[in-house]
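Pasting as-is:
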Amino acid sequence: MMHEMKLRNYVFKSELLVPVEYKGLTLDTQLRCDFLFANCIVVELKSVNAMTPIFEAQLLTYMKLLQVPKGILINFNVTNIFREGQKTLVNDLFRHLPD
């Protein structure tokens, strides 16, 4: 997927360490988001039999910690990715984006 994104000249980061701060202290965690596009969309990739709420919670957490307004959850273990394999989430930052 990274190769395809590079071919299309997308601005992205892959396997980005997600910083976690608590009361001024930066915690050493191993949280990694799969892709961050143009510092405004987090993409989390899965290949699972069933999506569970924990995957959405994970994506929302990455969005909050990275201060990103939009996230896309993609599951490759489906017959049709467009119909059943993706879910888009937005948070409060989305409301403040320019039209």
